[in-house]
Design brief:
A hairpin with a 5-residue loop joins strand 2 and strand 3. The protein is built from nine helices and 23 strands. The radius of gyration is 23 Å and the shape is globular. The strands form six sheets. Strands 18, 19, 20, 21, 22 and 23 form a six-stranded parallel beta sheet that branches. By secondary structure, the protein is of the alpha/beta class. The N terminus is likely disordered. It has two domains: 303 residues, paralog of FGE (formylglycine-generating enzyme) (Alpha-Beta Complex); 153 residues, Flavodoxin domain (Rossmann fold), CATH 3.40.50. The longest helix has 18 residues. Helix content is 20%, strand content 21%.
């Protein structure tokens, strides 16, 4: 569907809303302008589950400030008015594959404008003169940008269009002027509210989302982990894995006219990652909030929605991904918003600088099941001379392919912490830990979680490397970042199975990038 179609749909929705009024869950749409094979190779089960945007068409809209006066503002045609309302943010305790940080609570958000589409590469390059994206195409979403890059783009575009920039940036410190009329990132609450579009199910499709409805790792639909060997109970069967981003106008929009809120690229939001203001872990366990802006401090920024290489479970409306604000990835982009009602005050976001260093003593720690990860670790050791430590278990996983698939998903679903058989007695001596693991069910194996929780990594640098069968890192970097938020994370390396003859050169370049070797 082209943008003009989306605008027409949005206008019809607006007319309906004007007739029917607003509701508790909010209404929106007012236009302002494939085979199911596990990602794993039998020779190496280390890989566990292994339209157009051209033009500057604008429409005049009316913005109301806190004092009640109205001013005319211009917005690009693809921006949609998301009318404010109250909803349940987070996930219910019975939702499959939910995380503990998704405590459900009542949130009210005010009106705001949101782009129907993810920001394209053409739009980003027009303002910045650069295109950092891994995939190339004017109508593809821009990706491989950091949170700081996203904030800078918002300001630059605002200045280009004569708007008041939303942000003041001083190094890692960013202050948001809530009264500014310029472009900005949505808050985490605004994003989830818009994504849900009045729904309460894991996805805004109100079904187990399919690869015909979203761009993700279609071999792994929702709840495949529990039904891998017998898929009769799956609502959605495995589908296509495109292994690339797709144009931002792809697929049908959600009920409020927003495209690709699930999949394609994850989308940066304003908030630091942190616990919601929870009082307990009941079904509604956090304080009621109005227009929340997230944690006051932190080391990680949140991004939402999931990307082209994610499993469906990590595209749920409530799922929270996080990464350091100065890091980008091939599956993270942004979606712009603007104020509909002028806010007041400012939100200071004091950057908590990581103090990690790649100097000093280096440890290579790894967990391996079938040998790929171990082979990579040994090559790293050969090039660096660093100490090598294999993470092993008191009760090892089965040597049987089918059995270990089930054991791995069971442990991940339960967030188990398997007991480690050996330990690093002198962890305080290491400044840098090169951490290796296979991509198991789109995340880290749980022995890695046991390892990360056993030691104090504050002030250390963790440099991840991952063996995989097509999903690259999955959400493993988010998992690591959440477990050790006070560590600096270096540039990660993903290796397809054992890579082959190119592996030594790949590792050399990666080690140089991270300053481990010269």
């Amino acid at each position: 569907m082209k943008k003009s179609g989306a605008v027409f749909m949005a206008v019809i929705m607006m007319m309906s809303l004007c007739a029917c009024g607003n509701s508790d869950t909010g209404q929106a749409g007012e236009s302002a302008g494939g085979n199911g094979q596990a990602e794993i190779g039998r020779e190496e089960t280390d890989d566990m589950v292994r339209s157009d945007t051209e033009g500057e068409s604008e429409m005049n809209v009316v913005e109301e400030n806190d004092a009640g006066s109205q001013t005319a503002v211009q917005l690009p045609e693809e921006f949609i008015l998301i009318q404010g309302g109250t909803f349940q943010m987070g996930s219910p305790v019975e939702e499959a594959w939910r995380s503990e940080d998704e405590v459900q609570h009542t949130v009210t958000v005010s009106d705001f404008y949101m782009s129907a589409y993810e920001l394209t590469q053409a739009e980003y390059q027009e303002i910045t003169g650069e295109n950092p994206s891994t995939f190339s195409g004017e109508d593809l979403p821009v990706e491989n940008i950091s949170w700081l890059d996203a904030v800078s783009y918002c300001n630059a575009r605002s200045e280009r269009e004569g708007l008041t920039p939303a942000y003041t940036v001083n190094g890692a410190d960013v202050t948001w002027d809530r009264a500014a009329n310029g472009y900005r990132l949505p808050t985490e609450a605004e994003w989830e509210y818009a994504c849900r579009a009045g729904t309460t199910t894991p996805f805004n499709t109100e079904t187990s989302i399919s690869a015909e409805e979203s761009n993700y790792y279609g071999h792994y639909p929702y709840e495949i982990e529990d039904n891998y060997f017998s898929q009769g109970n799956l609502t959605t069967k495995p589908g296509e894995y495109r292994q690339t981003t797709v144009p931002v106008t792809s697929f049908s929009p959600n009920p409020w006219g927003l495209y690709n809120m699930h999949g394609n690229v994850g989308e940066w939001v304003w908030d630091y990652y942190g616990a919601y203001n929870s009082t307990n872990e009941s079904a509604v366990g956090a304080e009621e909030q109005t227009d929340p802006t997230g944690a006051e401090t932190g080391t990680l920024r949140v991004y939402r929605g999931g990307g082209w290489n994610d499993f469906a479970k990590n595209m749920r409306s409530a799922y929270r991904a996080a990464l350091a604000g100065d890091k980008g990835s091939f599956n993270i982009g942004l979606r712009l918003v603007r104020n509909a009602v002028s806010g007041s005050g400012s939100v200071a976001s004091a950057g908590m600088e990581h103090t990690g260093s790649t100097g000093g003593k280096v440890l290579i720690a790894f967990f391996s099941w079938g040998g790929n990860t171990k082979g990579i670790a040994q090559e790293i050791q050969a090039q660096t001379g660093a100490d090598l430590f294999e993470i092993t278990l008191v009760d090892p996983y089965s040597n049987d392919y089918n059995t270990v698939l089930d054991e791995a998903q069971r442990d991940q679903n339960e967030q188990a912490r398997p007991e480690l058989a050996v330990h690093v007695e002198n962890m305080e001596e290491y400044d840098t830990v090169i951490l290796g693991y296979p991509n198991w069910w789109a995340s880290i194996p749980m022995p890695i979680a046991s390892f990360l929780e056993e030691y104090d990594f504050a002030g250390k640098t963790i440099i991840p490397f991952c063996s995989h069968g097509g999903g690259r890192f999955g959400q493993s970097l988010t998992a690591i970042a959440k477990l050790v938020p006070d560590a600096q994370m270096g540039e990660a390396l993903s290796v397809h199975y054992s890579s082959g003859s190119d592996l030594p050169d790949e590792i050399t370049e990666w080690l140089k990038t991270n300053g481990v070797i010269e």
